[in-house]
Amino acid sequence: MDDLFIAQTKSTPNILFEPQKAKLSIEGQSYPENAFKFYEPIFVWMDEYLAQLKEDAVLEIYFHMPYINTSSSKCMMMLFEKLEEAHEAGKTVNIRWYYDQDNEIALDCAEEFKEDLTVPFEIIPLADEATKDGQ
Amino acid sequence: MENNLDLIELQKTLRDSGVLITFSGRFTQEIIEELGEAVKKYLETDATSLNDTYNVFSVFIEQTQNIRNYTVKQAGSPLAEQIANSGVLVIGKLNTGYFVSSGNLVAAPDVEPLVSQLEEIKLQDKAGLRKMYKEKLRKKLPEGSSSAGLGLIDMARKACQELNYSIVKVDEEVCFFSLQVRV
Which residue among A99, B39, B65, B163 has its CA within the 20 to 30 Å range from the CA of A29? Predict the structure, then answer.
């Protein structure tokens, strides 16, 4: 599979999916006009990727989203449900959600996502701008 | 002078009501983004915490996108233009904190479902709102949906008081709906 790259805009995050490295990163705020339309290609891509993911492979997913609107939250939940399903099917998926340590909203948001999931979901505070660049 | 708008008077009214930023007219995604970034930059220097900034910003986004989505849904209706041009948004500051208010015309048949949704939300305490939000977050959406229906619940969760709204009948076809959220 080819890489999937969607460049950041004011209202949409930077998305980089690298199948060879088994890595997906979503970084930036998200409040597109139509979140479902924006995230649709990522859902399609993820379905295709998870279907061929071997049991010994480890998919790493990295989020750093300082702000997401409600329809983007819904889309994230849909994405997490796909990952949850893969996890239940015995595949290895690690979710890491980074947030700026004084951004309580991003933390609360992550905790609510995590609550009903069993897929590994780590929530990690970032100390300051400098740390973030190193991730 | 042809245009007798008294700017001094207008400015006084805005100041007296604590208005920081206001926009009246047609909301497009571009305007929402530009205003949103301006709001965020302003609040970063004014607000006491990053959380205040994001609370105001997110209520602003949900309100303006609700208006925008409603406008998009009206496309093709005879009321479409009138509704699209009816948006108004105000962000202001009172001694007790910030408020985000918005208003727009709503077609008469859409008023009742909106009111019942707001009343249901007003009955909930924070724990109830959280439960409602989580249920909706997990509920499967019908094919082709463009809205998760989470906006009003999210605003109520971020508000420091219950949602305050009013409906004023304009004519047989439309009502003016306004919503004030205190953050």
Answer: B163
Q: To which residue do tokens 């973030």 refer?
A: A132
Q: What pTM was estimated for this model as a whole?
A: 0.91
A128–chain B Cβ distance below 8 A for any pair? no
Classify B7-182 by CATH class: alpha beta
Q: State the ipTM, two decimals.
A: 0.89
Mark residue B76 as left, alpha or beta (left: phi above 0; alpha: psi -120 to 50; beta: remaining): left
Q: Which of A124, A31, A117 is nearest to A77 (CA)?
A: A117
Percentage, residues of chain B above pLDDT 90: 79
Beta strands A23-27 and A14-18, pairing class: antiparallel
Among the CATH numbers 1.20.1050, 3.30.2320, 3.30.750, 3.30.1360, which is that of A4-132? 3.30.750
Nearest to B150 among A11, A73, A116 (CB): A73
Distances (CA, A) of A26 to B38, B58, B169: 24, 19, 45
